[in-house]
């Protein structure tokens, strides 16, 4: 005898609480409330919208809808763990697995790579980002005029560098970015393009920014994962005893926090100026414009064991600020004064600074700190 719809939905709830089904199959968000009937996976609402962009592969339905017995059976037969064993069986260690906090581009391309292109079932499909060499054209923002122009990029693991060329037939690159200090992070809002990628590297121990995009979403994510692959193979050689689990978090990193604050100079007598700040690990950089190629200045933030502290507020004698929510960072050499527009921003910045200060310094970070102290 067929179950009433309520009975089917009760059975579906039993399937939902099985191991693996309690989080979204694609981004790990807890308590997924949608399902793909064709793929047999439970997903969150945000990922269900991305599944709708591949209707020939995935048909989604809310777990709150009325379900019939055959649909429940399909979900019971597959489920997230079985789907993962099939669709993610050969994901390279370096490949970026997005979470629910990542941008739409990364999440959508992860879903398409798994279910539409079957990239992790057939290793030959991973060649665009795992071959150790990649070349192509990206739109790059000009340092001085802000215009995006097509530039040829070459990533070579053998040469240990990412290079770009200003002219198509140029023999010498305009810039050589060593894989050793390379980072890449998607910045769609900042760059004003859904495929916007910010690439950073160190030049003379100062951070240099390059902003690029490609009109093809897969192309841009392939570049990102090719950079991660190059970093992974570089670190495997640099740290031969390290496990994949130790190396993967070091491949690329998102900035801890970004936003506008006001700052004053070392004498604390100059007026406060509004600047764009980026917190990248222990480097606090400030720029006149969020898309500047070079920082106006960088501040090293060490640990509490080394006499670094962060305080809410500014010294009583401070003048010249427009925003009222102050922050003082105390270093062994001097105090840095900042002001935030809102109390919420002040709270978030202090939390970001505190996370860094609470973390003991690694041996290589002492060398970075020493360089900052010797800057003119």
From TrEMBL:
<keyword id="KW-0963">Cytoplasm</keyword>
<dbReference type="InterPro" id="IPR052589">
    <property type="entry name" value="Arf-GAP_dual-PH_domain"/>
</dbReference>
<feature type="domain" description="Arf-GAP">
    <location>
        <begin position="9"/>
        <end position="128"/>
    </location>
</feature>
<keyword id="KW-0863">Zinc-finger</keyword>
<dbReference type="GO" id="GO:0005886">
    <property type="term" value="C:plasma membrane"/>
</dbReference>
<dbReference type="InterPro" id="IPR037278">
    <property type="entry name" value="ARFGAP/RecO"/>
</dbReference>
<keyword id="KW-0343">GTPase activation</keyword>
<dbReference type="GO" id="GO:0005547">
    <property type="term" value="F:phosphatidylinositol-3,4,5-trisphosphate binding"/>
</dbReference>
<feature type="domain" description="PH">
    <location>
        <begin position="131"/>
        <end position="232"/>
    </location>
</feature>
<keyword id="KW-0677">Repeat</keyword>
<keyword id="KW-0479">Metal-binding</keyword>
<dbReference type="InterPro" id="IPR001849">
    <property type="entry name" value="PH_domain"/>
</dbReference>
<dbReference type="GO" id="GO:0005096">
    <property type="term" value="F:GTPase activator activity"/>
</dbReference>
<dbReference type="InterPro" id="IPR011993">
    <property type="entry name" value="PH-like_dom_sf"/>
</dbReference>
<dbReference type="InterPro" id="IPR038508">
    <property type="entry name" value="ArfGAP_dom_sf"/>
</dbReference>
<keyword id="KW-0862">Zinc</keyword>
<dbReference type="GO" id="GO:0008270">
    <property type="term" value="F:zinc ion binding"/>
</dbReference>
<protein>
    <submittedName>
        <fullName>ArfGAP with dual PH domains 1</fullName>
    </submittedName>
</protein>
<dbReference type="GO" id="GO:1902936">
    <property type="term" value="F:phosphatidylinositol bisphosphate binding"/>
</dbReference>
<dbReference type="Pfam" id="PF00169">
    <property type="entry name" value="PH"/>
</dbReference>
<dbReference type="Pfam" id="PF01412">
    <property type="entry name" value="ArfGap"/>
</dbReference>
<dbReference type="InterPro" id="IPR037851">
    <property type="entry name" value="PH2_ADAP"/>
</dbReference>
<dbReference type="GO" id="GO:0005737">
    <property type="term" value="C:cytoplasm"/>
</dbReference>
<dbReference type="InterPro" id="IPR037849">
    <property type="entry name" value="PH1_ADAP"/>
</dbReference>
<dbReference type="InterPro" id="IPR001164">
    <property type="entry name" value="ArfGAP_dom"/>
</dbReference>
<feature type="domain" description="PH">
    <location>
        <begin position="254"/>
        <end position="358"/>
    </location>
</feature>
